[in-house]
Amino acid sequence: MLSTCWLLFLHSVVQLIPNHLNWIEHSSLSFLSAILEGTKSLVDAGLSCEYLSEVKDAREDPLPSQECNLAALCDMAKELPLVSENGEDPVQFIEPEDGCSTTHLDLFTRITENCMDCAMEVTLMGEKYIIPPRCAFLLSDFARMQPLVGCEYGKFFDLIVLDPPWENKSVKRSGRYSFLPSSQLKRLPVPLLASTGCVVVTWVTNRPSHLRFVRDELYPHWGVEVLAEWFWVKVTRSGEYVFPLDSPHKKPYEVLVLGRYQLPMEEQRVIVSVPSALHSHKPSLSEVLRPYVGADARCLELFARSLQPGWTSWGNEVIKFQHGIGCHLERTLRLSSRLQRETTSSTASHACL
Questions:
Q1: One biological process GO term for this chain (predicted)?
Q2: For residue 99, how many other CB atoms are within 10 A of its CB?
Q3: Contact 198, 239 (CB under 8 A)
Q4: Predicted confidence (pLDDT) per residue in 30-67, tens digit
């Protein structure tokens, strides 16, 4: 279970390098030292709480991927008329049929909401997907986001998290998923979705040009002020880096660029966790960002491939990781949330701001 559980130890916040440093300076010895120091503090706490184990990890086979090609279906669905063109309600609600299952929904042209306090099950092309409680999603292509921004929906969000499909050579070679050119990201209607003071968070690969683009072009284009860079450090269940920290190829961390119109936040922060067994499945940021957006914040994730309770999500693979073969993820997310709350409560005195 721990191999798929993200252990976000929130008790230690490490302030790293100032915002004005560029990516090359990030590779300096002082930067590596800061990553080492922050990770050691978090891993030590994980070992002491027995969330991590000093026993070396055994190699595990990756989880099987689903057969239903959601991105291809979304591409074909672009030919369907939008419900707004027919004057229909762009939002549909999951209603219980046969207990906790629903089978007949228009998942491609409407926002789907589960307003219930329990998870529901939907079926698409014969495949079953688990929909968390109190969440909403839009399964669509990049060009079909209108239901989210239309006046009929009328929602503005206090937190927007983006996990763009960045273009890179390995993605092109593997064909694992489609990518989006950086220039296309500017077309995302973030200003039409964000409330005043909205926190905007973007996952960025370790490619320097992508980081520069987000900081120098994308955020200024949206009117978002860059405030912070945080780092997600990936470790094994025994607390070791998944790749050497000084590897010239793959790094054991990814970057989060945070921006906001108001209110300060830590310039740098380290998040350490065991990565999911599902490829490119990012850890939930709900708990770690809660102090900055509030408990009742309206949260939106773009390019999502999974759903979270209380969130609205969009993407052309938005229910990919809700597939029935990975339904254990719901239990994992609940366990992860409980561990986060326990860790925050029991170790608050060790926080370093």
A1: methylation
A2: 7
A3: no
A4: 667 778 888 999 999 999 998 888 877 666 666 655 55
